[in-house]
Specification:
With 141 residues, this protein is mainly alpha-helical. The chain has 6 helices and no strands. The structure holds magnesium ion. The site of magnesium ion has 4 residues, from α2 and α3.
Length: 141
C-alpha cells in the first residue's frame, strides 16, 4: 500500500507507536462500517463515507508499512490472480449452463416439430403450451 511514502510512514510510526496505530486503524475501520451501515439504511451520505475511506486507507497504509509492504504486495498479487481465476471459471460455468439449456430446449422443439408432417408446418396451441411448460421446467422456473 503506497498511499504514504516510507519516510512519512516511518516518521508517523516513531511518533505514534505501533500499538496506537493498530488501535487507530480499528477505530477508523469501525467508523467506516458505521458510515456504510447508515448509508445502506438511507441515513448517511457519501461525503461521510469518503472521509472514512480516506481515514482507513491512511491507517491501512501505516499497517502495511508496519507488517511489511512487500509481503502485503505479494499477498495482493496472489489474491488478484485467484479473483481472476474465479471470474474465468464462473464465465466458463455459466457458458456451459447456457449451452446445456439451449440444447435441452432444442431437443424439445425437435421432438415437437418432428412428431408429424403437420407439426413441421404448424405447431398447435397445445404444443406451444407443452413447449412453454417444458422450457419452464428446463429453466427451473
Ligand atoms: Mg474517521
Amino acid at each position: 500500500m503506497s498511499i504514504l511514502n516510507e519516510e512519512d510512514s516511518k516518521r508517523y510510526l516513531e511518533f505514534f507507536g505501533k500499538n496506537f496505530e493498530i488501535s487507530k486503524t480499528m477505530e477508523e475501520m469501525s467508523e467506516l462500517i458505521q458510515a456504510l451501515c447508515k448509508y445502506q439504511i438511507n441515513q448517511g451520505n457519501a461525503d461521510n463515507i469518503i472521509e472514512e475511506i480516506a481515514d482507513v486507507l491512511l491507517m491501512i497504509s501505516q499497517l502495511s508499512y508496519i507488517f511489511g509492504n512487500d509481503l502485503v504486495k505479494e499477498k495482493i498479487k496472489v489474491k488478484l490472480a485467484r479473483l481472476e481465476e474465479r471470474i474465468h471459471n464462473e464465465k466458463i460455468r455459466s457458458q456451459r449452463y447456457r449451452e446445456s439449456k439451449f440444447y435441452q430446449i432444442e431437443d424439445v422443439i425437435e421432438s415437437l416439430t418432428s412428431s408429424s408432417e403437420y407439426h413441421k408446418k404448424v405447431i398447435m396451441y397445445e404444443d406451444i403450451e407443452t413447449l412453454r411448460e417444458k422450457i419452464k421446467t428446463i429453466l427451473g422456473e
